[in-house]
Fold:
Amino acid sequence: MLNELVSIERGVTLARIGTNHRHPDVRVAGKKRTLKVQLDEKGRVTAVVLVPGALSPWTLRDGQHNSFPLVQFKKPLWGTPLTDLQREMVADKKNRRQALHQLAGIAHLDAAAYANWPGKKMITRIRERREQLVPLQDGVASVVLATFDRFLRAFDSTAGGDALRTIESVARRITEDIERIAQDDYLECAVALLVGEKKT
Structure:
């Protein structure tokens, strides 16, 4: 819904129709290909899908901090060091899918890198933003509050969330999906997220 509103806003701007400005905390996320993690009402991972290239996801941000619902993992999810041969195979577009499938059997989550992710400050800010948006709860924009709630159920330990378990579920879902999803863009995102973008 909010992505559609951003598209409408762009069309209105191109048509040079005057509008009120968007709130400064609402930003377009950028051009980088993005995977969307879908969570159920209990905060469990149900799907990981590629955001279509024609869409520019929106995010709320405090300057360059506390971006939500677009969040970024700063390090690869897998903490397993790759050999030069494995890195070459992952970099080779012909072998990439098979290489990821093989690595999935030996890879493990980099628990040390994500032990404190997303961090208390971000969780607190997400709770604060959710409270600010309570007036939206009865309208079509109630999906925004549901997004906040599901994230908190997945990642906020005080709400029963388990960040490491959720991140592991994301990695597992991606490795299951690379067998059936033919999109090269999905595979590119999977490589970046699981093992990093470092070239050989």
Observations:
- Helices lie at 2-14, 84-91, 96-104, 111-114, 120-132, 142-155, 163-177, 184-194.
- The chain has a mean pLDDT of 86.
- Residues 73-194 form one domain.
- The first strand starts at residue 26 and ends at 28.
